[in-house]
Specification:
The chain has 619 residues and is α+β, with helices and mostly antiparallel strands. It has twelve helices and 26 strands.
């Protein structure tokens, strides 16, 4: 504790020798009144000019800096348009900017397959909607002068019939096991034609709708109505072509490619791991090894030459930015000064330094580019107030390898981590907002370390009515129905001969689908996950395989093709894959509705309690 004040006789000598430590410069000053009354503090009273000079000295305004403000900037860049699109499976096609890229990539066939077994297909709501539209076309055409000779609605209800389920049939057990599904199917049976069956018939042969005709003169009119029904379906749902598929079931993600012409060649980009539901520049990587995506049947895209655009640089501004003037009050909505970063929060420290120290060192050069543009920046020529012109190149031009550079909005190169990223800026035709429905099917893939396998748990299953219902409830109801159908005459119980019985294997709920480890073809060390099946054992019936009910897990099942899943796609936390309807409105006002898939991280491992060779109490 100082007993007397320290008097400095010669301030210049003391500062030169640095005998007194002190802070002589501040980057930011914040007022801290000592009372709750802010009236006098907000007045910022000035007693004399020395007070103002001291404030300027504190803020470092007297420090000379050999710098100038930019007054003119000229930007040189190459611009080209995306011209080709290639899904994972399918043919090369022209890049269509009239529809959103998410819908183009994510669209999947509608869930129409009847599972498990059965003669009636699922998605009854879609079948009724299409059937109602077809009967409306028939009724309107029959009432029009010179139209159809009669009303053909009863004929089509017989030809494309919605049958009433038989509770005694094994084929209809999936419908009859649920009272709500059974009642809905029985209510519409015979009262409406199956529009989906009719559309499938039209897809095979558009001239086949007149097979029920009594009057050959109506054949051409009905064929025209069939074309109108197909056009209606295309307006309602954005469906993929039969051979087009961007979804990769073995990796649980979408994969596609795109290209654009460039002087002396072509820019080829690929997306190998897209599943988030939001497409942007970070979803694509530059591929310099793949062949050029060019179809001679497609029109040749024009290559734009490099152009130079002049700008007047504008200072950067954002919320919470410190004002450079002393008498300006700042907006308190975003207060970077209240951030409390830890010692390891490097990103937060960099953000604070950018926002508080170097905020007024950045300028904005606004430029509007059309959607679907691939722009490559060559550099910026900046002219300052002193008349000096400086050529500014992209930040990673001088970096020798990839790990020595850092930048944003650039494209990494496929399988080349040590090479510099490409400076191309890609503006994809993507969506700002998508309206998503409730999941129609949802599968949780989890690891079971005790059983040494992966389980696909069907948490939500598409029901016959077209709604997504809980998988455990439908699986148990279906099993109970099959047991009831398989039950024969009552058998007298066996006499009790022991207190314990031997059980070879216990049973699991039928919505648990196993994935067992299997060697990759041609490799003795790599492992893949192959879809298996649990046995369904019913009295007096042969053993059956329990099939999955979600199309996500039925990949290749109808064709008898085994389904393999890459082991690294199921981490220890597991994954949740869901499929749902999605809807949006594009730039021209057109509405797109498609059936897409999302993938999210799970919540950890699970235990199936699968056990073998156990002793159970007989009672």
């Amino acid at each position: 504790m100082l007993t007397q004040s320290y008097i400095v006789k010669d301030l210049k000598v003391e500062l030169a020798s640095r005998t007194i430590p002190g802070i002589t410069q501040w980057n930011r000053l914040e007022g801290r009144p000592r009372t709750h009354d802010f009236d006098r503090a907000l007045q910022a009273e000035v007693r004399d000019a020395l007070w103002m000079l001291s404030r300027q000295w504190q803020m470092g305004e007297f420090i000379g800096d050999d710098a100038a403000s930019p007054v003119d900037a000229r930007l040189a860049m190459h611009c080209t348009q995306l011209s080709e699109y290639l899904p994972k499976t399918g043919t090369l096609q022209a890049f269509d900017l009239s529809r959103p890229l998410e819908a183009q990539v994510e669209r999947r066939p509608l869930p129409l397959e009847a599972v498990p077994g059965g003669s009636a297909g699922i998605s009854l709501d879609l079948r009724l909607m299409a059937g109602r539209m077809w009967e409306k076309l028939l009724q309107t055409e029959a009432a029009r002068p010179g139209g159809l000779s009669k009303d053909y609605r009863p004929d089509y209800r017989i030809r494309f019939e919605i049958k009433s389920p038989d509770p005694a049939s094994v084929a209809d057990a999936a419908i009859c096991s649920n009272a709500e599904e059974w009642a809905m199917q029985d209510a519409v049976a015979g009262n409406m034609c199956d529009g989906i069956q009719l559309l499938q018939q039209l897809a095979a042969d558009v001239a086949s709708v007149g097979i029920l005709l009594a009057d050959p003169a109506d054949a051409s009119k009905l064929d025209g109505l069939g074309i109108r029904l197909q056009a209606w379906q295309q307006r309602q749902f954005f469906l993929p072509q039969p051979d087009e598929q961007a979804w990769d079931p073995s990796h649980l993600e979408y994969q596609f490619g795109a290209s654009a012409p460039r002087e002396g060649g072509q820019v080829v980009m690929k997306a190998k791991e897209y599943y988030q539901g939001r497409l942007d520049w970070y979803s694509l990587d530059m591929d310099t090894q793949s062949p050029v995506l060019q179809d001679p049947a497609l029109p040749v895209a024009e290559v734009e030459e490099s152009k130079v655009i002049s700008f007047i640089p504008t200072p950067l501004a954002f919320e919470g930015m410190p004002h450079t003037r002393w008498w300006a009050f700042e907006e308190g909505k975003t207060n970077f000064g209240k951030l409390r970063p830890d010692s390891t929060d490097l990103g937060k420290l960099l953000l604070m330094e950018f926002a508080l120290v170097y905020a007024n060192d950045w300028y904005v050069l606004p430029m509007a580019l059309p959607t679907g543009t691939v722009a490559k920046l060559e550099g910026i020529a900046v002219t300052d107030v002193f008349g000096e012109r400086i050529w500014v190149q992209p930040s990673n031009e001088k970096a020798k390898t990839g790990w020595q550079s850092w930048n944003m909005f650039s494209l990494s190169k496929v399988d080349k981590l040590n090479e510099r990223a490409d400076n191309s800026l890609v503006l994809l035709p993507t969506l700002p907002k998508v309206q998503e429905g409730k999941p129609l099917e949802e599968v949780m893939l989890v690891r079971d370390e005790m059983a040494n396998m992966v389980w696909g748990i069907e948490r939500r299953v598409p029901a016959h009515s077209g709604k997504g219902k809980p998988g455990p409830e439908l699986a148990q109801a279906y099993l109970d129905k099959r047991k009831a159908l398989a039950a024969g005459p009552p058998v007298a119980p066996l006499p009790k001969v022991a207190d314990w019985r031997y059980e070879i294997m216990n049973t699991l709920p039928e919505h648990w689908i196993p994935f067992i480890p299997a060697h990759t073809a041609g490799n003795n060390r790599e492992i893949e996950l192959q879809r298996g099946a649990m046995p369904r054992i019913l009295p007096e019936l042969p053993v059956e395989k329990v099939e999955p009910r979600t199309p996500l897990l039925r990949e290749g099942l109808a064709e008898g093709i085994p389904y393999y899943l890459h082991e690294e796609e199921v981490p220890r936390a597991g994954v949740v894959v869901s499929a749902k309807y999605q809807r949006t409105r594009w730039l021209n006002g057109q509405v797109f509705t498609w059936y897409g898939i999302r993938k999210q991280t799970g919540r950890g491992e699970a235990s199936s309690q699968l056990a073998f060779d156990q002793l159970r109490p007989t009672s």
